[in-house]
Amino acid sequence: MLDRALNLLGWLVVLFILGPLIVIIGGSFTTTPYVAFPPAGFTLRWYVQLMHRGDFLHSFVISVVLAVACSAGAMVLGVAAVIGLHRHGFTGKRFFRAFLMSPLVLPTIVTGVALLQFYYLIDLDAPMTGLLIGHVLITIPYVVRTVGAGLVQLDPAIEEAAESLGAGALRTLLKVTLPAIAPSIMAAVIFVFITSFDQATVSIFLAGPDVMPLPVRIYNYIDFAVDPMVAAVSTLLILFAFGIIALLQKLLGLNKAMGVGA
Q1: What pLDDT score was predicted for residue 262?
Q2: How far is CA 261 from CA 150, 183, 253, 254, in A?
Q3: Which of 39, 41, 175, 216 could form a disulfide with 30 if both were Cys (CB 3.0 to 4.6 A apart)?
Q4: Residues 105, 175: Cα–Cα separation, whole Å
């Protein structure tokens, strides 16, 4: 009886999570000039209309470039920081770890306003650079948490064996440590990429007319009109995210990527 109740609860949670996605995907095919679910008829008109919107395509390219650059920057800084925290003990270690994780605690709107005022004070007139710094700042905690979990699971004897065989610290890091935690690093890359690509709150404050990520473009568009083209954009973004997860599953397997199991 308890097992059935738990199974039912589990399916209700799944339905609650997937429900909004089903509504958005279904609404993108409606023939009405507004989002309707169940859809009234079936049409690809809104997808065709989207394909002719150069501003949305430009924003998509900006979001992809920004997410790739953010992934690279967050991985370099985050992996270096978490390896240093894992290997070395120093005064203020807990404070430094808490500092790295603080973007998860602060509301992103506060981070966005603070960065905007800081850029104004230093007269930074480079929206792409400002966006990249902001995205790296808010995604580093995902790297610290995910890669840190991989390092905790790493057997220290492996590194000790490499050092006992004559490998230096750098060679041990490159040839032993990083390959051993590669699944955790890959999982962190996926988290950072999706978080950066989908980031709207911070981007709203830092974007410019010529450098406008896709979430900001969508937000500005629905200020003036809410039509099924917005649902079409959202559907493509959903498929894009699922495609990344499917690629991760194909290349590594989700369990391996998340550092679960052998």
Answers
A1: 41
A2: 11, 11, 11, 10
A3: 39
A4: 35
The structural domain count of the chain equals 2
One pLDDT digit (tens) per residue for the chain, 262 residues: 677 788 888 888 888 888 778 888 887 888 877 777 777 778 888 888 888 888 888 888 888 899 999 989 888 888 888 887 777 766 767 777 777 788 888 888 888 888 888 888 888 878 888 889 888 988 888 888 888 777 777 667 666 676 666 666 677 766 777 777 777 788 888 888 888 888 888 888 888 788 888 888 888 887 777 778 888 888 888 888 788 777 766 766 655 555 444 4
Q: Are residues 38 and 80 in the same domain?
A: no
Domain-embedded: residue 49: no
Whether 144 contacts 78, CB under 8 Å: yes
**Do residues 1 and 66 both lie within one domain?**
no
Which domain CATH number covers 248?
A: 1.10.3720.10
Which two three-digit tokens encode residue 20? 């909004």
